[in-house]
Amino acid sequence: MTQTPGHPPDWTFLVAETDAAGSLLRRGRELWHDYSFAVRDAEPLMVLLATGCEKLLKLTFGLTHADETGEWPAYEVLKRYGHDLAGLDQHCRGLIAARLDRATHPAVIAPLLDAAGTDPHLRQLLDTLTTYAKRGRFYNLDHLAGSPQDADSPARMWDRLVDEAFASRADLRPLLGTDNESWNRLRRETNQVLVDSLSRWQELYARAWAHGICGAEAKRFGLGLLPTPIP
Asked: Which residues fall within 8 angstroms of residue 146, CB to CB, at 6 or more apart?
């Protein structure tokens, strides 16, 4: 069975893709809590997060389009965005803002939109995942094949993201270069800064779905996409 363009979304595929998006983002946040060094941990983390974010964004775009037109967007329409997660996020947040009056409770969604717009780390996070999805996945293979990329490695990109998160927490600076316990706290709390940014962003989309902004089909699945606490 395949999804036919120009028809409402097939429920079977919708359930599978929504489950995959939620699972990828949850596994990414779980791995994030154990993150220590970019050279070892950044790549598997970016695989999970970039794929999960792309699925969530394209589902949001598709469900909103289907709600407006009665049809799932054709392959070529979604293909235009490629792996541009940052650009697709801007477009989807614009859709949510434009359809805010359709929400069951707009007062729940508006602060989440504002938080995403003012989050100091979200844009860099999505830009990093976009760069990774577009060309970072095969960075090392390209170098081995004699066709090196004129860009930073995935590990270096992630290091910059973590450095910015650390710099935003003046209270963590005294822990730098001290004992192992202090290093572990520094790493854990720096990671949490970025995990919180992603979780707030995911909550925006989950609640936009649940409140009917993206249509009746999305409303069924929204609460299941809420980020859950990581033990």
From this structure: none
What is the CB neighbour count within 10 angstroms for residue 120?
11
Question: Closest Cα to residue 227, out of 104, 49, 91, 14?
Answer: 49
HSE of 198, CA atoms in CB hemisphere, 13 A: 34
- Where along the chain do its domains lie? 11-225
Task: Quote the DSSP letter at residue 224.
Answer: G
Query: Cβ distance 112 to 201 under 8 Å?
Result: no
The H-or-E segment that residue 153 falls in is none
Residue type, position 163, single letter: D
**CA 173, CA 71: separation in Å to the nearest integer?**
52
Please give the structure tokens belonging to residue 121.
Answer: 């780390």
What's the DSSP call for residue 168?
Answer: T
Q: What is the pTM of this model?
A: 0.91
189 burial level (CB within 10 Å; 0-12, 13-18, 19+): middle
The CA distance from 42 to 11, in Å, is 34
Cα separation of 62 and 218, whole Å? 10
Rounded CA-CA distance 113/128 in Å is: 21
The dihedral through the CA atoms of 210, 196, 131, 22 has a sign that is negative
pLDDT tens-digit map of 175-225: 888 888 998 899 999 999 999 999 999 999 999 999 999 999 999 999 999
Give strand ranges (E) for 129-218. none
